[in-house]
């Protein structure tokens, strides 16, 4: 059990995780959008996808691949361009096929869990800000000469996913609760579609201007 951090370190990491989980970003925007248009089940699948993305980032950081990616200008350019393009595509989808197309929540057969999981996974994985975040955040809680540094980084990354889950669920349930009222307000729902499209576009532009240092 040498990979377990001390209690003060774990408490500090938990506090930082909860604060960061409550900070709006592409992941949260996508899950709220799904909760409003398709219901909480679809949004939960999105969170599963973003969590899988965080797991991949954890593995990359723990085994040093992320350092290679951010050290290569070409690899980083390809990554951030792909991430920005994906968010722009989601923005267009929000406008073209927004919630006003069907204000009622879709049933299980109409909403593919795999589709929502893959969308959440793609948004998270193609966001270079997440790579940089994991590279700068996780190492703060380990020491460079710790013989168990890889195991501890893996622990922190996995713990981050589970510690952030209550915040993600609370956000989804709140959005799902509001959807009952919003279903009767088509003009408001359409405004939300454009709002989410604008937010996705802003995040896409920010990603394009993300620097490795």
| Regions with little confidence, pLDDT below 50 for 5+ residues | 100-109
Shape: globular
Biggest sheet architecture: none
Radius of gyration, whole Å:
18 Å
Distance between the termini: 34 Å
Mean of all residue-level pLDDT scores: 79
Helix content: over 70%
Please tell me about this protein's structure.
This protein has 213 residues and is mainly alpha-helical. The relative contact order is 0.21. The two termini are 34 Å apart. Helix 2 (26-37) runs antiparallel to helix 3 (40-62). Residues 100-109 have low confidence and may be disordered. The chain contains 9 helices and no strands.
Furnish the topology, listing elements before pairings:
Layout: H1 7-21, H2 26-37, H3 40-62, H4 65-71, H5 73-96, H6 113-125, H7 128-137, H8 149-182, H9 186-208
Helix pairs in contact: 1-8, 2-3, 2-6, 2-8, 2-9, 3-6, 3-7, 3-8, 5-9
Structure summary:
This protein is an all-alpha fold. Helix content is 76%, strand content 0%.
Distinctive features:
globular, 0% strand, 76% helix, 213 residues, 9 helices, mainly alpha
């Amino acid at each position: 059990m040498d990979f377990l951090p001390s209690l003060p370190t774990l408490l500090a990491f938990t506090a930082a995780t909860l604060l960061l989980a409550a900070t709006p970003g592409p992941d949260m925007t996508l899950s709220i959008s799904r909760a409003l248009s398709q219901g909480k089940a679809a949004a939960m699948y999105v969170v599963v996808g973003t969590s899988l993305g965080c797991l991949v980032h954890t593995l990359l950081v723990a085994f040093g691949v992320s350092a290679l990616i951010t050290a290569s200008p070409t690899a980083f350019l390809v990554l951030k361009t792909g991430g920005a393009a994906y968010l722009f595509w989601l923005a267009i989808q929000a406008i073209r096929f927004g919630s006003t197309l069907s204000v009622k929540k879709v049933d299980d057969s109409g909403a593919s869990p795999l589709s929502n999981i893959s969308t959440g996974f793609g948004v998270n994985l193609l966001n270079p800000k997440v790579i940089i975040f994991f590279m700068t955040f996780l190492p703060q809680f380990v020491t460079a000469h710790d013989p168990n540094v890889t195991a501890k980084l893996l622990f922190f990354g996995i713990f981050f996913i589970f510690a952030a889950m209550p915040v993600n669920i609370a956000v989804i349930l709140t959005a799902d609760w509001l959807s009952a009222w919003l279903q009767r307000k088509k003009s408001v729902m359409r405004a939300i579609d454009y709002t989410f499209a604008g937010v996705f576009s802003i995040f896409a532009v920010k990603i394009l201007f993300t620097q490795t240092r």
